[in-house]
Design a protein that fits this description.
Blueprint lengths: L4 E8 L4 E7 L3 E4 L7 H10 L9 E3 L5 H4 L2 H8 L3 E4 L3 H6 L11 H6 L16 E3 L3 E2 L7 E5 L8 E5 L3 E3 L5 E2 H4 L1 E6 L7 H12 L5 E3 L8 H20 L3 E6 L5 E7 L1
Parallel strand pairs: 3-4, 4-5, 5-6, 10-13
Antiparallel strand pairs: 1-2, 2-3, 7-8, 8-9, 9-10, 11-12, 14-15
Helix pairs in contact: 1-3, 7-8
Length: 261
Amino acid sequence: MSRTKVVPIPVLGQRAVNAYLLLGRHPVIVDAGTPGSGRRITEQVAAHGLDPEDVRLVVVTHGHIDHFGSAAELRRLTGAPIAAHAADLGPYRTGRVREPYLPTGPMGRLMARNPKLHEQAEPFEPDILVRGATGLADFGVDARIIPTPGHTAGSVSVLTDDGDLVAGDLIANSFMGLIKGRPANPPFHDDPLANLASLRAMLDLKPTRLYVGHGTPLDPARADRWATAEQRRLTRRAARGKLQVRALEPDGEPARADERA
C-alpha cells in the first residue's frame, strides 16, 4: 500500500474555498470550486509536477456551487470522470443549488445575499454515481468515498487508508477559514442534526486530520469537543422548534425548507 498525500488547492482566497489533490499511484481531485476555477485548479496540479491529464478521477463532495461549480470544466481539462452522490443529482443536472439556502448563523444569512451563490454553473452528469461507500484503489489512491448526508442530502467525504479525512462541508473553520483551526459550522446546512450525526460517524473512525472545504485542517480531538457542544445547542433549538431542515419528498429528493420541532 502506498501512502496517499492530501494537498490543499486554494480556489478562493488563501483558504476561503478549497479543493484537494490526492497523491497516490495516480492523482485524484476532490471538489471543483466555483464556476471558472478549472484552470486555476489544473495549474496547481501542474505546479506539483503532474500532467493534469494524468488525473484519474474528480470527486464532488456535494451540490453547492463552490464545490461543483467547475466540475464539467475539470472533466474537459483532465479527461477524468466525475464521481458524485445520487442524492444531489438535481443540482448537478441543472447547475443550480437547491434554494433557499438554510443558514447556520449570521454568516450564512449574510452570504445568502451574495448573487454569486445563486448563479447557474455548467450542468453535468456524474460518470460514477455514488450510493454507498466506494473504494478508490482502481483510480490510484488508497481511499474510499463515504456518504455523509446532512449538509446536503448527497454530501460525501473521502477517507484515505492513512486516516486523512477530506470532509467537504461536514465542518469548517470559523468565519469561512479566517480563524484557523477553530471548528465551526459552514454557512449553510440542509439538516444540521443529520450533518452532526455524519460528523460523529466520521470521528468514530479515528481520522488523523480533517481537511475541510473552508479553512485549514482541523484536529479531530478539537472537532469532537466542538461536536459535543454543538449537539447540545442543536437539541435546544430543535426543542424550541427553531431548527430549519430541508424536507424530503417520498422519493428522497430534497424539497422545500421546513422547521423541525
